[in-house]
Amino acid sequence: MGIQKKQKRPYIAQQKGTALTAIAAPTAPKAQDRLVATVSDGLARTNRLIKDRMQSDVPVIPALADHLIAAGGKRVRPVLTLAAAHLCADSPDIQNRAALLAAAVEFIHTATLLHDDVVDTSELRRGRTAAHLIWSPPSAILVGDFLFARAFELMVETGQMPALHCLSQAARVIAEGEVAQLSAVRNLDLGVDQYRKIIAAKTATLFSAATTVGAIAAEAPAAQQEALRQYGHHLGMAFQLADDALDYDGDSETLGKNVGDDLREGKLTLPLILTIARTPKKAAFWREIFADDHKLERHIPEIMDLAQSTGAVTDTWTAAKAEAETAVTALQSCEPLRSGAQSTAEDLAGLAYACAERRT
Description:
The chain is mostly helical. It has helices at 31-38, 40-53, 60-69, 76-88, 92-120, 131-134, 137-158, 161-183, 192-217, 222-249, 252-255, 261-264, 270-277, 283-289, 293-298, 300-309, 312-330, 342-356, and strands at residues 12-16, 19-23, 124-125, 128-129. Strand 3 and strand 4 (128-129) form a beta hairpin. It starts with 11 loop residues before the first strand and ends with a helix. The protein is globular, with a radius of gyration of 20 Å. The chain has 18 helices and four strands. It has one domain: Orthogonal Bundle (Farnesyl Diphosphate Synthase). Helices cover 69% and strands 4% of the residues.
């Protein structure tokens, strides 16, 4: 029996033989904490690699990189790489390769954050002043480029061409997604399907790459690699949908970044796309405010209220949870599980739901 739905939404799985049967569990929000404990040795190795490989003889590089990396972050992506490897196999060689790839994944993620904050002129990141405001936009971009280069060095060290192919392809797709999003700014004709393609590229791609390279590090069968790729993709979609909901339904202090920034920048995310579609009598209003930054800024509270009253925010949260459920279903294809991997599978399932309900 595989992962199944019951009356309550499933969070984690309970062992029955080698299969997974979904059950409701209030501990799902702690799934990442349990995964961190499971891969603690690998994560410590990954953090040492990150600290070591961000060093340079050019002082601004480690200073700027450390400003963002030391701010914390959830380390979701490297944990996914390590957990995926642990799910498939467990040996010192595999965990060493997984740590190299986990560090590469985190460097790619950090590089994209540095670049994004310049493009978006963001003021906050992880509760700190954005790096480009302390140093300069060119410095932030170039340090991001340095981290990309370090990521590729780490990939090469594993000697696994499939991992190099996966992550290099991911870097390209992420860039395409960011350009597509930039091109769609203030495009009131942007539809849900186009929006989903953008977030799949710019966000879900790195999640799916993170889980895939973990499976590659473990030399898992193709079927398990594909199952973990799909799991990572749908988890990434859930993560981004939740992120977009939080821009209308979150708290700046909790988030570590300003609420309403996407709206302020003219980005059409799902809450706004649905709000516009559900207020056809306000078509002239939408055209007017998106043609004028000052008018847009003045009307942000009104738009926030409309996103709530039309149900757009609620439906975005619902879409995030649906993606989490699809991610959990994808884990079925990883069965039968190796001995000792059951709890890891349970917590990967729980993490998907936790991402869809996150408040930070």
